[in-house]
User: Fold these one by one.
Assistant:
Number 1:
Amino acid sequence: MECETFQSYIMNRGGVTQSQFNELTPFLRSEAFSKGEVLLQQGETCKASMFVEKGLLRAYTLDESGKEHIVQFAPENWFIGDRGSIYFNDLSYFIIDSIEDAEVVFITDEFIEKASELSTSFRKFNKKLLHNHIQHLQKRIDLLLGASAEKRYLNFIELYPDLLLRVPQWMIASYLGITPESLSRVRKSLADKNFKPY
Amino acid sequence: MECETFQSYIMNRGGVTQSQFNELTPFLRSEAFSKGEVLLQQGETCKASMFVEKGLLRAYTLDESGKEHIVQFAPENWFIGDRGSIYFNDLSYFIIDSIEDAEVVFITDEFIEKASELSTSFRKFNKKLLHNHIQHLQKRIDLLLGASAEKRYLNFIELYPDLLLRVPQWMIASYLGITPESLSRVRKSLADKNFKPY
DNA sequence: CGTCGAATTGATGTCATTCAACTACAGTGG
DNA sequence: CCACTGTAGTTGAATGACATCAATTCGACG
């Protein structure tokens, strides 16, 4: 069982005590995936959220023409999953796979319920997480509603400076909703204006 | 106190009993707004989510050039609010105003907490609402990542057939992330292919 | 009836896409 | 160790989708 990162995450940030955590371990399961492996296929059902201990995952869809649309990246300490599938038993809308070798902890609804029962501060923390997630998604929508390719890219750099170095450019393009060629041109134009991300 | 719609909403769908509801009424406040009135200004703090009893609200932002980006519509039985502002005390990112004369019930976090305490089924219901909201936002992002103006419009019609008749076209355009002129042309082209929404 | 905003239409512009060619580099097998 | 192959990234030219600007029509409302 490899959940140290998750353990310290919910202990430090979620206010869960050691003894509470011990009670919760039976509900946890972790698994390692290698780069490129698919954790959730479109059309399967997703049984749990996934917490990334190590590595980097992504959630994306495929359109009719086979193009990928990356909806979310999940590096260390992030959650990822298909909530429609988890909570409404829909078939998964997203594909989730790993961009780097990864360690993942599966967080079932059962775990969340149990933890919420044991710890008020976890309950509050979880609530904040959800609201934070919603807020984040809304801001992303706002950005997609009319910001230029350049603005989206600058925003991405600001939000995920660490991912810049870990994610191939064509995936960033897909996350931004533009083509790799366009992103390349945006970067060039920024370089010409001698903009330096790092 | 005008909360009949909300009352039947959380009794029928949230499984709250009459006596539980009675205990909760002290936490509720409702208010009427007329068309065009602003309920939340950008930069204010938002103290509560709002449940729409009657009428139609919208949440939007203004960009540097003064253009509106509509992030959400909220007709009867929908919630709207700025979660960043409610839960993290940020200044509101959105402006919320009313498109039609409206009756609104203010749902404070206190109310949610109290109701969750009183009723397990409300707690579950609320959880589902949140996850449903997240799923919905993710699908919207997926759509904005690369779907054509026409596809977005068709998707809008499918999701909100009722809103088609109530929301002026330029607001729909703003929700879709295109200009009113473009939407007009999309509609024309659909009409030429003799597409009929109703 | 006149006014004002919404919607349509046309002419033109701009930004991003598409398609194709080319470079760079990493991984594979001889 | 080097050729072969495949993928990422860049660049160019042509196209296309949507935006912009301007003019006109339509319709609601005073």
Number 2:
Amino acid sequence: MSTDQPVSRRERLRVETTREITTIALRQMAADGPGAISLRGIAREMGMTARAIYSYFATRDDLITALIGETAASLADSLESARDAVPGADPRGRLIAWGTALREWAVANPEGFRLVYGDSIPGYQAPGGSPVERAARRICGGLNRLVAACAGAGAGHEEAGWAAFPAEYLAKIRDEVPDLSPRVAELALRVWGRMHGLVALEIHGHLRPVHGDPAALYRAEMTELAESLGGRAS
Amino acid sequence: MSTDQPVSRRERLRVETTREITTIALRQMAADGPGAISLRGIAREMGMTARAIYSYFATRDDLITALIGETAASLADSLESARDAVPGADPRGRLIAWGTALREWAVANPEGFRLVYGDSIPGYQAPGGSPVERAARRICGGLNRLVAACAGAGAGHEEAGWAAFPAEYLAKIRDEVPDLSPRVAELALRVWGRMHGLVALEIHGHLRPVHGDPAALYRAEMTELAESLGGRAS
DNA sequence: GTAAACAGGAAACGCCGTGTACTTCGGATA
DNA sequence: TATCCGAAGTACACGGCGTTTCCTGTTTAC
């Protein structure tokens, strides 16, 4: 993004080593779950001492935070490109594409989903740091826009309706989606919950023993969801 | 349940010690999350060596399994008593009570919810063992009955509709809810997803930064859900 | 009364994250 | 070109973890 060039050799090596660390960590996570990420394991694979990692990440949780940021960004990418593949004139189609992409990304990266939306790391506490938050805003803002497009602007633009929303979130979301009504913002969260529910159940293994075709189940839910929003189909 | 009496002194002590272990483990979990459950910690608190625990649970995962079973049973208790507090003539009210109880139990026992529905234990794999499965059946069967009561028996009792359901699940659920149609069974899973979604988001801390009153949000969702099922209100 | 089953202790193995002390070496500066 | 600073890295230690092996003492069953 920014254009400062890390000319120095040391700087370059640093970036490369950091990348190598996160790459190995993501591979460890994909293989054995978020809980299996270990500094010692990464260092072993890199042929280094565990202590060496501390030159790049002050603590294990800092590394985890970086991984969450990267993973969430990859999810946001998937969602946005799936949405953009459907013409803007078909808001319900876009919303369904977005929701479908959410599930498909999760099925393809189950450990990533658990990393971002679960709390598989024993003592980890999310810090609200910048890259994670940026990805969250992309995802949340995108969903709000889609729901707004489906459900219309809504009659109530009065300020009273915003009472339920924390000021911090409000500032961000109204900045990103200017003509948002409280009704739509609330609806968007409920839509998010509806998508998240089936996906979380499936990823955590509660759905498969009980239904042979989670994709179809999810498709049915998305269809009904889009219809319930009452937007115009293409 | 079964009436075999553990007369022998050893048997009695064994039961008591087992209870003490699980009690301490549940307390540890409630305090610091499912990942903080440790054999050594439990033993320390009991004034014993870690080795002693192995006389009662062959491995840490066996202990976790027992805890999941107990926790899920407590959840099932809450759900059933909430449902039974509403007269059977009001199926929608019963469903809403059930869903509300789900959220309230989760809010009151967040770590328990994570233990049962997440995978906070690093390398843990659920074994389909008896107590866990029994609780799952109570919960799942109960929900299916409620949804059936709301949505009616459904026209399609033909066998073809059952294709999507695994045989094992089918046997259990049709045994428990005899006059179940595939349409209702599928609907019940979608209802479950809808409830689970908002609760999971809230428990994992994704909802609070974004909405000040998750209970109201959930209430709105439950209301719309019940309406969409089209059952008779009281 | 005796032999088997069982509860539990002591110590060890190999993991883990992290802290301290010390070496090595790239790179800016005198 | 010589020098010095700070960053990268190693070696080692600490305490915690689950689990195992070997051992002792008690309880139960025959």
